[in-house]
Amino acid sequence: MKVFRAVSGKPAFPIVRWAALAWLLLWVPVYWRAWGWHNFLLFCDVSVALACIGIWRGSALLLSSQAVGAILPNLLWTVDAGWRLMLGRHLFGGTEYMWDAAYPLWIRLLSLFHVVWPPLLLWAVRRTGYDPRGLWLQSGIAAGLLIVCRIVEGALGIGKNLNFVLQDPLLHRTWGPPPVHIAVLLVVLIGAIYFPTHLWLRRIAPPGVRGARPISARAS
């Protein structure tokens, strides 16, 4: 597979980058008004912003980090939403808000980006190449977000359980004091999601270029 490297001064995604920018200009203000500013501390929403920046810049490192962190969670979101749609109940949970009539349907439908994100990230990483440093970058981003979310929850008492910093999503319990709970969450994220996805991407995607922006000589 051809990897698009810096050869002509043209952006790696000359058309898609504008679509990514347009999406951010629509999505950010709508989500901010509907769900509140704290919603942008969630892993999935941070991933949207960073992936769009990665597409705009043609950054293999940034796109690789978001592929590591977002492909599997978004697939699980899609399975849960599909399960609820077809069978009338949730398989994992986390998509209940999609059936909350308190929010306009068109706003809820914007969350269908979860369905698009895995193939989009996979396509982008296969185009630019996979940079294995993405594992460490995403792990650092996750650690920072967990700490920030715990501070926000403690200081503002918003009770949203942002990124599960108050209770885990499966057993609904707290694993010790806040530092211990955050450490447990981070270990699970890295061990169960990030590292397996990292190994898979190394197998299926060409290697990225360190320190260089992949550039396409033709439009995408």
Commentary on this structure:
The protein is mostly helical and 220 residues long. Helix content is 61%, strand content 0%. The protein contains seven helices and no strands.
Largest sheet: none
Number of domains: 1
Query: How much helical structure, as a percent, in the residues?
Result: 55-70%
**Rg result:** 18 Å
Tell me the β content: under 5%
Which class best fits the helix and strand makeup? Answer: mainly alpha
Distance between the first and last residues' Cα: 15 Å
Secondary structure elements and pairings:
Layout lengths: L15 H20 L7 H15 L2 H28 L17 H5 L3 H16 L4 H24 L21 H27 L16
Helix pairs in contact: 1-2, 2-3, 2-5, 3-5, 3-6, 3-7, 6-7
Q: Would you kindly provide a brief summary of this structure?
A:
With 220 residues, the protein is mainly alpha-helical. The chain has helices at 16-35, 43-57, 60-87, 105-109, 113-128, 133-156, 178-204.
Key structural traits:
single chain; 220 residues; mainly alpha; 7 helices; disordered C terminus
